[in-house]
Amino acid sequence: MRRLEDYGRRAVRQALRRGTLVLHLGPFAMQLKADSRALLAFLLSMYGACHATLEAGVLADFSLHVRAPNMIRRFVRRQITPDPGFYFPTVPLPRPMAPLALEMGMNLAVALQCFRFAIYHAGVVADERGAIAISAFSGGGKSTLTAALMEEGFRLLSDEFAIMGLDEPGLYPYPRPVSLKNASVEIVRAFAGAEEMSTTLTGTPKGDIGYRRARPHELEMMHEPAMPKLLLFPQFSLDAEPRAEKVEPGDAVMRFIAGSPNYHALGEAAFGSLMAFADSVAAYDLHYGNTADSIALVKDLWREHGS
Amino acid sequence: MAAGPNRKTWRWRANPRHYRCHVLGDVTFVYNHLSGDTHMLNLVSIALLNLMAERTFTLDELAAAFPAHMDVSADECPPGVVWRLFDELDEVGLVERSGGA
User: Fold this and answer.
1) DSSP code of A122?
2) Domain containing A237: what range?
3) Which of B32, B14, B18, B31 lies closest to A276 in space, CA to CA?
4) Of A68, A86, A113, which closes a domain?
5) What would the pLDDT profile of A229-282 be if each residue is shown by its tens digit?
């Protein structure tokens, strides 16, 4: 299958306008439709190495239309909103923020329409020994830690979702760009390099947003699941003393379930895989005040549990 | 299930075909096939569920049998405690009425 960057810009733009552009990422095929220069530039920059098809009739798991919220906002004070094919209340964004609408829409589509896998809100990285799942509330440092671990020899499976098989605990890759907010944008730009980052979107409802691109080898390995070994709950707070505290397995499971949009819909199959997951991981709260401390904590834990 | 006024004379049981257990450390996770809900039970609650899976009980029989099942005296495990634990299992549908008095 060809990569998106192997097609000409004109062909990609036309397919995007027609709604026949399909990104094939990990276990999902996502059909996209949009008419936005900002979104086209973002796609070619951040998803250029992804497998894609442009012809009509390709079967897709999800369909996402990034469009104006109504006819007036197509022309006057132009706005844009993600339409994943079902009603979901979203704040319309100024048209230049189309990349944010795209990413939000792709998250919505997977979170609320996927029933082949159990979905949990977590970042996941892995090496040859196994996977680390990173679960946190907004602002906890999940994405920053995920991006930092990419620089430490781990491959990105996903920034947003732990995608777990049913009746087995393997975690499946969905290597989309890592979403970074506010101060994290510059922190990651400093160690990943500016060429790996998107243009920063300023003044969004979530503050400043930037994306760190998934790397070619992560896309090449996007069909290779990893067995989980470590479950981390990062809690960043400025100048905090670094420490790791073990979390009881039962508490870890309850926290993980709370971050799932589809666990309760999937029934016993999700229960089976989650229990196998809980048997295979050690869970820790991580407290830290800077990225270097968080990496040191994870390295220590990985030496102990990553075997 | 909210039991009615005659609940003390009814016989109660837990049906293991209706749930699936998984022990994690000090707690047991129970998946209820009938409701689709997942519950986290501590050592005492799972012991009561396991006892009720062995045979049927009235609530008085249950209060009398549970201390011995836990290897404690009746003073350490009074009927009110047993009935409160039972109510919690009943509330989430893990125990059921098995027939008349």
Assistant:
1) -
2) 118-305
3) B31
4) A113
5) 999 999 998 889 999 999 999 999 999 999 999 999 999 999 999 999 999 999
Within a 10 A sphere around the Cβ of A166, how many other Cβ atoms?
16
Is B21 at the interface with chain A, CB within 8 A?
A: no
Confidence of residue B101 (pLDDT cuts 50, 70, 90): very low
Distance from CA of A280 to the nearest CA of B (A): 11
Model confidence pLDDT, tens digit, residues B26-53:
999 999 999 999 999 999 999 999 999 9
A164 plus A245 within the same structural domain: yes
At residue A199, the 3 state secondary structure works out as coil
Of A249, A268, A278, the CB nearest to B31: A268
Domain C-terminal end among A113, A135, A170:
A113
Residues A296, A2: Cα–Cα separation, whole Å: 39
Instruction: Calculate how close chain B gets to A167, using CA atoms only, in Å.
Output: 13
Q: Which chain B residues have a beta carbon less than 8 Å from that of A273?
A: none
Q: Are residues A90 and A177 in the same domain?
A: no
Q: For residues A179 and A293, state if they share a domain.
A: yes
Nearest to A231 by CA among A292, A306, A178: A306
User: Same domain, yes or no, for A222 and A252?
Assistant: yes
For A194-232, the pLDDT digits (tens) are 999 999 999 999 899 999 999 999 999 999 999 999 999
ipTM over 0.85: yes
Contact B25 A267 (CB under 8 A): no
Q: What digits encode the pLDDT tens for the residues A106-159? A: 999 999 999 999 999 999 999 999 999 999 877 788 999 999 999 999 999 999
Dist. CA A121–CA A161, nearest whole Å: 5
Amino acid at residue number A261 = P
CB of B17 less than 8 A from some CB of A: no
A139 touching B (Cβ < 8 Å): no
Kindly list the domain boundaries of chain B, sorted by start residue: 15-94
Q: Which residues of B touch A254 (CB under 8 A)?
A: 40
The answer to whether the CB atoms of B20 and A268 lie below 8 A apart is: yes
